[in-house]
Amino acid sequence: MEILKVKRESNVNSYAKAFPTVFESSEGDILTDHLGKTYIDFFSGAGALNYGHNNPILKKALISFIESNAVVHCLDMDSKIKEVFLENFDSVILSPRGLNYKVQFTGPTGTNAVEAAVKLVRKVTGRKKVIAFTSSFHGMTATSMALSGLMENQHAVNPSQDVVFFPYEGFLGKTISAMEYMKLMINSKGSGVELPAAIIMETVQAEGGVNVAGVKWLKELREFTEQNGILMIVDDIQAGCGRTGSFFSFERAGIVPDIVLLSKSISGYGLPLSLLLMKPQFDIWKPGEHNGTFRSNNLALCTANTALGFWKDDAFEKDILHKSEIISTRLNALRQQAKVVTDVRGIGLIWGIEFTDKSVAKKVADELFSQGMLIEVCGNNDNVLKLLSPLTISIENLEKGLTMIKNAVLT
Amino acid sequence: MEILKVKRESNVNSYAKAFPTVFESSEGDILTDHLGKTYIDFFSGAGALNYGHNNPILKKALISFIESNAVVHCLDMDSKIKEVFLENFDSVILSPRGLNYKVQFTGPTGTNAVEAAVKLVRKVTGRKKVIAFTSSFHGMTATSMALSGLMENQHAVNPSQDVVFFPYEGFLGKTISAMEYMKLMINSKGSGVELPAAIIMETVQAEGGVNVAGVKWLKELREFTEQNGILMIVDDIQAGCGRTGSFFSFERAGIVPDIVLLSKSISGYGLPLSLLLMKPQFDIWKPGEHNGTFRSNNLALCTANTALGFWKDDAFEKDILHKSEIISTRLNALRQQAKVVTDVRGIGLIWGIEFTDKSVAKKVADELFSQGMLIEVCGNNDNVLKLLSPLTISIENLEKGLTMIKNAVLT
Amino acid sequence: MEILKVKRESNVNSYAKAFPTVFESSEGDILTDHLGKTYIDFFSGAGALNYGHNNPILKKALISFIESNAVVHCLDMDSKIKEVFLENFDSVILSPRGLNYKVQFTGPTGTNAVEAAVKLVRKVTGRKKVIAFTSSFHGMTATSMALSGLMENQHAVNPSQDVVFFPYEGFLGKTISAMEYMKLMINSKGSGVELPAAIIMETVQAEGGVNVAGVKWLKELREFTEQNGILMIVDDIQAGCGRTGSFFSFERAGIVPDIVLLSKSISGYGLPLSLLLMKPQFDIWKPGEHNGTFRSNNLALCTANTALGFWKDDAFEKDILHKSEIISTRLNALRQQAKVVTDVRGIGLIWGIEFTDKSVAKKVADELFSQGMLIEVCGNNDNVLKLLSPLTISIENLEKGLTMIKNAVLT
Amino acid sequence: MEILKVKRESNVNSYAKAFPTVFESSEGDILTDHLGKTYIDFFSGAGALNYGHNNPILKKALISFIESNAVVHCLDMDSKIKEVFLENFDSVILSPRGLNYKVQFTGPTGTNAVEAAVKLVRKVTGRKKVIAFTSSFHGMTATSMALSGLMENQHAVNPSQDVVFFPYEGFLGKTISAMEYMKLMINSKGSGVELPAAIIMETVQAEGGVNVAGVKWLKELREFTEQNGILMIVDDIQAGCGRTGSFFSFERAGIVPDIVLLSKSISGYGLPLSLLLMKPQFDIWKPGEHNGTFRSNNLALCTANTALGFWKDDAFEKDILHKSEIISTRLNALRQQAKVVTDVRGIGLIWGIEFTDKSVAKKVADELFSQGMLIEVCGNNDNVLKLLSPLTISIENLEKGLTMIKNAVLT
Hints:
4 copies of one chain form a homotetramer.
Chain A: H1 2-8, H2 15-18, E1 22-27, E2 30-33, E3 38-41, H3 44-47, H4 56-67, E4 78-79, H5 80-94, E5 102-105, H6 110-125, E6 130-133, H7 142-146, E7 163-166, H8 178-187, E8 198-201, E9 204-205, E10 211-212, H9 215-227, E11 231-235, E12 259-262, E13 275-278, H10 298-307, H11 315-337, E14 341-347, E15 350-355, H12 358-371, E16 373-374, E17 376-378, E18 384-387, H13 395-410
Parallel strand pairs in A: 3-16, 6-7, 6-8, 8-11, 11-12
Antiparallel strand pairs in A: 1-2, 2-3, 5-13, 9-10, 12-13, 14-15, 15-18, 17-18
Helix pairs in contact in A: 4-10, 5-10, 11-13, 12-13
């Protein structure tokens, strides 16, 4: 089989190279490969599996849905499952948080939601420029890639997409305030930076190295964008759906973005689905102005609807918090012990261990893979190990995984 | 429920407006709405349901896959189902046709495959411009939309994507040869059209009004692009997977594109999946240069693999041909009878009835919906009724549907 | 001296290579080099010397102006000479032709006027795209170069400038009508060509190979652009100021462009000056929205004002016509005699002899230089010898030059 | 006459509105209008008249040149005057300063030289982006305008020109170091700012409000750009030709830019001329790759050549320094006296008085005009009075002008 793969699959694949085996099955926080070897999942499908692999509640709903001959594919026609999902999304997620958003089902990939958002903010404001942040990652279609600071080496392959980069909080170290920089550059005449249509941001930069924006900065940013008529797009594709401890990542800052993008774990089962939430006054789309064959993918809506059950009370949030504290304690202890660790940081169940350099990080990740763990490296300099277990990981496997990490770092 | 929809879902949805009901279940070529009314499907999820709704063979495989706790989501890691699919895709589809392509699993939407293709041809050739055709449709992300002639009214919202439009065969009527035009503009010095990286095309323009390119033109185009070092991308997203009578739409012309894009019906079950096929020499991607969370969506690979069974011998192709002849005979007869019909055209199981104007076409489609048929209107001027039933439609329902259409046109 | 030049002047210079000597003085239609060798001028500074070198009437006015300490440089402040020029330009040129244009003094190079025009049409229409023609040449700054079909090989060096190329009359030969093509592409929905802000054109393409647009085509183009709200910019930089027999090149077609660009011979003495003429309703500029240090170069306005004297009655036009007929007769006779000549064409005092190929054209031009004539080659394929003597050339030197050309072609 | 002007000249003119009269003659540092009123020149044609109006030495050379029937216009053919100028420019300017540049005669406007430079750096490096600074001004053609921070409000009218803005020294106040910001953004992976082809800069920002870059910053910038393979373009169009006290503005920092742009005062007489100086290894132009009808404008070369006489010894530099000290003393005293003055700054003979706000600055400038002085306001906020007298101003008129300014400010 491997010979075939070499022959038929493109060189472009990357995780197959980082995790060189063939996976067969998975359940909760464990994957099993074709040799029967098991792996604790500290990767969660890059954030698409917050509720674990083949979550039994979702699985049951999914099989039942399929067996009933419910409509699986119908583009953006109204289907029973879409109606039900919208009703529950409203009652379980939006209304309790006092949020009033209209929902657009974009093509079911995060990058498609980003593309739709950029098109929309340009239509709404009549302006062209969009501000993105250093160390950002928003996807790989032309617009999204141009918005991704991490992809700077690829930007030149496409025409300019009218993006301006601003430093994310902390990117320039302690001497240069990102907020002050933004205010000066946007509000000063003659800076060369015309008033942008929008800023797009992650409140926690995942691919960028687990950079957790401060609440104060987020509040200031929201205030500043509101005062200047700049739309705020929060890309909650990786950080949303509970990853940071609350359903939306921005709840901790008490801010309300103009547009929110969800994907990855919104279906709960690893199925493709993307949502663009927008304040009602910005829903100026004409019918069909942004479409796509697989928008409102019904299988994904079925599991997405069921997954809303996790959010009906605060038990799930408390559980995440509890696990987060375990990680925090363990990692801070590790930092004291290990000279190669230069920082540990995180929130909810996204944590990063920053190493002195890339080679150390890679060595640790490779060692962990060989010992039975999926975990990846991230950051501008590929020197941050990213702990991203399912939110539903058992305490036992969490502790076990943390011990494996500790041992791999210390040896 | 409808009140909720007004409140929560974006205005952007379009099919919900064309087909105003709530769909609950579907099977083969029939959908059923929440009131129990049934609809014959002459729409096929805009080409994503070539094997019908909830095809029982695929359904069985899908449920079995889910029940087995097979890995559902693992990005581009190697999974058992991916290995099996690649092996079968090679042995059932590529090898018998003498094709040697490498397979890239792009994000699972057609537009993502288009974006990847454009990025790739620019990297391969070091050139910027891409030629697209009039009446084309390739998707709605920035690059794809810019390549879509049909979307000309939206092009100005984004920065220029370095696209040049050339007339598709027949677009300029009989006095101007599209091929001669292309040759003169590209080969003449001083035309202002620099040598492009690639052309992207549909061999049958579906959204554009069911425009079936002639074999001679396709051959000339392939010869011309080869001679000039211009890569040929065939967007087979809607016309592929059997829609025109053979697996790939270009087989009838005996040409081999440099890059082929598949999506829509490749999963067979309406699940999101997209493939970019490229000649091996063009697979210059570095790992991760184009990625996406839901690439190689395993549920879709499961049904895609099973759907390959339709292509193990030529029975399926013969069946499509038989149905195509039925349609051809019936539509040509209708054309003789109906003054409002200005043309009928098609191939395989994609056929168009062109009306004198948009209002007639819409009236017919609306009437058919009220009588229990899903069918949509397409074309630059929205005056072409597009017959796009599942390839697996029963002869009975095909005949019934054609009679419904006849009656709707003649009254 | 030549050693120095090699050392200090950039490789970019081109005419120094075509005409390899050092010029010292010039008078009327004759230049003299540092060795005392004389050259008949069939080049006229690429159209900047319609009234010949150092025209004595203009020279006298110029010296008198300088001696009087008149203001030489004052940007766009009001100066005596600007007031006088505007008054005379109105009474001698515009009013007698029934034209009502406002005058903008752009930076004193043709390309600057082109850049200003493109900026203006985008502001006026709110649209982005500008249509340019095959074989066009409009200058070398980023916008102008992008509008120049002849420069297609350089387009990729800069970002896309939102230009679309359409075939000029005759570019596609006799089988494809440029007018029909334009109408179909612009008026058909779905062509991919959104409504442009403007078209920019030369009524006689000089650099493009002396392509003289037909009156019928020009009229149709004007009618079509008016009906569709597309602004028509006539770049009369080389063809204006009498070159085609009338002051403006478009007079023969009885059309009125929305914007007209003048430069090259407008000063009459080879001094830098450029004018943008626009219909009053399009003068929506705010003060300073397009500026430049040397706009309304007063020395040039002094000679420009004096040169208006050529246009006070119709004697000058008659003289050009007479000379044009001499050329026409001689070249048509030559065409009969010379197998290497594939076409002769022209109007007024711009004529082209098209040869079978580039090497013949170059050989003839080189031979003529060695015999004492300045003449250059043009066209997409560099195979057209361009006869561009001063309008004021003596009949004697015109006849002499034509004989030199005949001999060079026939040997 | 004024009625005519309203009718015929575009609204775009700006200085005619700031200085509402009609100028007739001028000599040295004095202009005279049509009513005989005189004005001391503290404006110098926005930097184009460093040697004063109608400088008698240049005037004599110019008239003699014209009378001799020297070639006035010959594009980039070799002319006697071009040879002489190049020889003298080498021996008087370049060689004594140890500079080795090749000279390109671009179209004779500053913006054309900027356009040529950007095209060249893209060709040399194969990169697209160019960094410009806040408060910059480089001209009004599409590329140059995009590089001009001051023009940010107009950027959206044209397609993106691949420009990135960085803060000029001091733009962000004292808390954010422009140099540190640049280093972090360019050298950090993931910043979103790909390696640029070049930076373009003015060492003294004139239009931007008389911002004099520090020597330390200039040195660091040159070191940083060299280390990173980024070309440094110094736009010395306004600050060059002695304005800052030395021929080139960057001499005081002991740096050698890769490309230097000269225009404005290079002809010495207010005639259009522009030069692009480049290190020999960057002269990769092919013949004709950047051209223009009026390049190497010979009348301008005649006066430019004569004006080199000012630089044959150091007397002129000493004279500028002496006058600069007079201004410095007087302005610093004024600053102590006047509450509305928030800063005075300058170098050589370019000085700025910064006022509390724009209305004060305008009031002072208007008052000075009415009393007989030409002086303009500049800066991002239009609150800086720019003192820009001819370098040749008499001490008497300098003192007189300074007194006029003092009185206007203090009343």
